[in-house]
Amino acid sequence: MLGGTAQEDDWSREPDPAVAAAIRRRCAALRPEIAGARVLEHRVGLRPARHAVRLEREPLPDGRLLVHNYGHGGAGVTVAWGCAREAARLASRATG
Fold this sequence. Notes:
Layout: H1 17-30, E1 49-59, E2 65-72, H2 76-95
Antiparallel strand pairs: 1-2
C-alpha cells in the first residue's frame, strides 16, 4: 500500500491519476523496486481533520450522552487506540 496526501477541501472520492503517479514516484525514489510493481487498485479515503481532535462528552437535552471523537485526519490509525480508550472512559462515566 502506497499513498497519502493532505489536500484541504478536496472531498472527491475518485482517484486522481496524477496524484497516484506522484505518490508512486516518491515511493520509488526510496524503494526503486516499487517502480515496476503491478498496481492492483487505487482507493481514496477521506480523513477529515481539525486543528485538534474533538474528544469530549456532551449531555443532550433528553438526558442521553453524546461522546464526540473525530477530526483525527491521517493520524487516525496512529491515535485510534488511545482515543477509543478515552471515549469509552467518557461514555462509561455516564453509566457508572
